[in-house]
Fold each of these.
Amino acid sequence: MPSSPPNNFKRPSRFSMYSLKRFFRFWYLKLLRIRESPHNVAMGLSLGVLVGCLPIIPLQTVAAVILAFFFKCSKIAAAIGTWITNPLYAPFVFYGMYLLGRAVIPVGKKEFEPEDLTLLNIVNLGWDFFLLMLAGGVIVGLTLAFLTYLVSVRMVYLYRQKRSLRMQLKRLRER
């Protein structure tokens, strides 16, 4: 029979900062350890970021993986890249995209409501609203995808180089 924890033991809450940090570290390492070239990983991640900025909320991961298939890059990285618009701050990101789209394309006078963040609601609001969100999303997405590629290709390359050196040192010590 397992013993009970001591009285001063405090079990971490399910959504503690520790578990959030652990979650991001897990996916960060998973991304870096994908067994494809740094270019393929970075391309997949940047495609995911681009698609993650589009107002096709329930279909982002599927669309990113399909694009990664056609571009012959990492599908896992593409799926991870779509998490740029997670539920915590998606309303803020999409509101920014709406404002940017409204500044670029002067159509429609519909106001943005956070509860409108489903594809069906966006389409029901009208194509003008969807076009504004899409224009803003493409501008933000292309910019972020380019920056993501530049940073992630270097990050994956450096991680692998460092890991290779560690493995070589380990082999030398074992001799």
Amino acid sequence: MSLALFRWSVVLLLCLFTSAAVAGEVRTRKNKAKAPKLVSLEGGHQLHRDTATAFQRMALDAAKHGVVLTVTSGYRSPHEQRWLYEQYRQGSGNKAARPGQSKHQLGIAVDLIVGKRTSKRYRWLTANACRFGFRRTVRSEPWHWEYHPRSTFPPVAGFNCLGRKTRPPEPPTSVATQDPS
């Protein structure tokens, strides 16, 4: 390669890099105001805002059927997850995932009071949670539910999340008024 060609190559590269650097300095990104990703529920537990919205819709629907959904755990900070995992490893705590492996750290997992698997609350959850994007992901933990709206499909019309037929809504009973004439 000739010296002149080498010089022109260097000059061309310098021009490209400096123009890109100058353009990068000139263009500034406007900061968009972002909504907080974590929101607090009534009991003080936090969830990711989308998960919290879906959970509140689910809790309202459950209440219509006489079922109260009570959260015992939502979002966990990395520090809290590490502490829970260490307690579990030492044999003095409940089962807990390794730090970085828990969906609680993303705010999309919620632990609920469910009672036994025969309880009305648990049966309602298994039959209806998929309608709101929730599903059980840890087989040994009936209280642990995660929000996965894109991969949790709602039931087919006329069926619940377990694939069982649902009763059609009863037609409202009309109260006939008698004409006094």
Amino acid sequence: MRDGYDQFVADRLDRLLRYATAITCDKHLAQDIVQDVLVRARSRWGRIGVMDAPYLYVRRMVTNDYLSWRRLRARRDISSTHATLEELSPAVADPAERHAERDAMRARIAVLPRKQRAAIVLRYYEDATTTEIGQVLGCSEGTVRSHLSRALHTLRVNETSPSEVLR
């Protein structure tokens, strides 16, 4: 049992941290969430480890922890350092342009309601289907499509006025 859990953490920790960072927009909060989830998953690994897709279950635990009321205040504190962005993606020819685009997009995503933000990250960052997103968020596919539609609408509206979003 211990070897399976240790191997799971070794194989999936980076991916879980990237997912949590994308959904929270804060590296430190993401680390806290993933740490809390992995501690809880360790005590339940006998049940989780035998599942067909333990990563999906643990990812749902991360999502639920982010969506929980205990994190409500913490989600408002958005990290704005470029060091966080450097860790998430490799450097490009003109880093200033890439940083500006990512900062603007992160700021637009950060103003979305929590479930819409989670749906957007799951769909476009994790490449999850609407069925999988519905399972993670605990809602129907129609509700997922509604969350995605509203989030994309908000992102498009905010795209035309980035100075308003970045205030």
